[in-house]
């Protein structure tokens, strides 16, 4: 019924959506949307380095994203600039250095559009193994780190007092983000990764009554967005990555319609949150 490439795209997209759902919830709870963007922008620098030194693309993107997050942690500790200013500097610098490096590498033919917007229809079976293998790893890590991550999101001081090591949880969270960005780049592209992280989680927030339910719902909504976006792109002959984001956006808009009650999760997370960033 479908061509092989479409089935592969669907399987890869669903695997990715399941993985990024719970991570997206933490991005929203911790108000770190801009951080996700910065990590995604650093991916292009990873691409440039992998071409220059002939490295594995995913490994290179992961290393650069991880280095950028460590840089951010170090600069935050120095406290000279606000986090959003630091993120703005790191984000645009990494993206621009990547673009300049690519421009210098005249001997390499590079499909920039493919990297920026992804090419889910070109995923191979090896990519699917990577998405699902990496995804399962990330989900196990999230389950394992759930309590320290949630505690340090709600109240870092209390988490510290309970011996949950919020700083370490935060570092692990950033490394998981770097891994997901490395996995997701080929599928949805550098510019669309953040939207797949944030939009399904923001939609789930409306219906969730607990953090755990929100994480599960975010994955489910992501799967719906991927499926709807791919079928839409097949039907209307539109680019697949952006179509997935448009589908996610559509679900988000639907969730804003005034039906049912708003999930209680807002109050649960933010009553104890005290506006912590």
TrEMBL record:
The chain crosses the membrane at residues 6-29, 41-74, 94-118, 130-151, 171-201, 213-234, 240-259. It is a multi-pass membrane protein. Keywords: Cell inner membrane, Cell membrane, Ion transport, Membrane, Transmembrane, Transmembrane helix, Transport, Zinc, Zinc transport. GO terms for cellular component: ATP-binding cassette (ABC) transporter complex. One of its GO terms (biological process) is transmembrane transport. Pfam families: ABC-3. InterPro entries: ABC_BtuC-like (IPR037294), ABC_TroCD (IPR001626). It comes from the Bacteria. The keyword Transmembrane applies. It is found in: Cell inner membrane; Cell membrane. The keyword Membrane applies. NCBIfam families: PRK09543.1. Belongs to the ABC-3 integral membrane protein family. Involved in the high-affinity zinc uptake transport system. This is High-affinity zinc uptake system membrane protein ZnuB.
